[in-house]
Write a structure and sequence with these properties.
It is built from 16 helices and 12 strands. With about 350 residues, it is an alpha/beta fold. About 5% of the residues have low confidence.
Length: about 350
């Protein structure tokens, strides 16, 4: 959500209506990380008054998850209203949230309802909550405690029934220690927290995300669905995606425009993606991120022992038997290496 305020879902309609209510279609992926997110969404959707805090890096899909919670709940037929707290100046955010009475200030010639009232019966999504000014945080806290408020310049108390979903790409606990976020507001928001993983920790989801985006693009544009060559897909799954899903979809949009014959080839991808090269350490970390516990379990000690012996042997071979240099390669002391050799 880049602009200040967006009413994403109107009465009786859903941006996901064409996908149905299947949670796997709302939140795309097969990784254990996304499986846990889907499970939490299904659970929290059953409690329509519970406040939810979504945490994760920029571009990880916090707004998508907020939509899914709304769509899977009994509030789905009412408004989903989103506001980007970072995109509004401090002078406007209070009137946009709470509304304003006519005559409250020079330009307020008529009364105007705020987005809290527009979300009545539905869901209010507060994106980038960590950027909200401290003075506004105090007012939001009072509203969360009672679900009652006054328009700016008004004397009549209004009451709404609304679920609050907040999102942040900054660590709010750290913001509390820096005195930029209220601790009492954090605990009020933190009834249920859903942590969204970065895309680099769920690379196995990229193929499904690509299929989802290309299908959606074809369906919405009424055009033939674009395919991705195996070579291009390999490049997409190798890249680390610092911009997460948002960066992936932007890269696909660019590639769709540039590709010929409805097939995305490696040369259609942005140059920084097709020329990306992992160093050996990054390759090892990527491999570790793709390891998951087998459903039948396994002998962890035996596996770790085998990995350790393999690395010790390779380090000694690479250093021609020099234990001091081999220990340095492994981040060990010489005594620690000798102990492992003797085992």
């Amino acid at each position: 959500m880049k602009r200040g305020i967006v009413v994403v879902q109107q009465h009786g309609t859903s941006v996901y209506e064409h996908l149905g209510q299947d949670i796997a279609q709302l939140i795309v992926g097969r990784s254990p990380h996304i499986g846990r997110v889907r499970q939490m969404v299904q659970q929290v959707a059953q409690y329509p008054r519970a406040t939810v805090l979504l945490q994760g890096e920029s571009g990880t899909g916090k707004e998508v998850v907020a939509h899914a919670i709304h769509t899977c709940s009994n509030r789905a037929a009412r408004n989903f209203v989103g506001i980007n707290c970072a995109a509004l100046p401090e002078t406007l955010i209070e009137t946009e949230l709470f509304g304003v009475e006519s005559g409250a200030f020079t330009d307020a010639k008529t009364s105007r309802e705020g987005h809290i009232l527009r979300a009545d019966g539905g869901t209010l999504f507060l994106d980038e909550i960590g950027e909200m000014p401290l003075t506004m945080q105090a007012k939001l806290l009072r509203f969360l405690e009672t679900h009652r408020f006054h328009r700016v310049g008004g004397i009549r108390e209004l009451h709404v029934d609304v679920r609050i979903i907040a999102a942040s790409n900054v660590a709010l606990r750290q913001a509390i220690s820096l005195k930029t976020f209220r601790e009492d507001l954090y605990y009020r928001l933190n009834v249920v927290t859903i942590q969204l993983p970065p895309l680099r920790e769920r690379l196995e989801d990229i193929e499904l995300l690509v299929e989802h985006y290309l299908h959606k693009h074809a369906e919405e544009g009424g055009v033939q669905e674009v395919q991705v060559s195996a070579e291009a897909m390999e490049l997409l799954t190798r890249y680390q995606w610092p911009g997460n899903v948002r960066e992936l979809f932007a890269a696909l949009q660019s590639s769709i425009i540039l590709c010929e014959c409805n097939v995305i080839m490696p040369y259609d991808l942005p140059v920084h993606i097709r020329t990306y090269q992992e160093n050996e350490m990054q390759q090892l970390l990527t491999l570790c991120q793709q390891l998951h516990l087998p459903s039948e379990g396994f002998d962890m000690c035996a596996l770790l022992d085998d990995i350790e012996k393999r690395f010790v042997r390779e380090a000694l071979e690479q250093c021609n038997g020099n234990q001091v240099r081999a220990a340095a390669l492994l981040g060990l002391s010489r005594d620690q290496l000798r102990y492992r050799i003797s085992e």
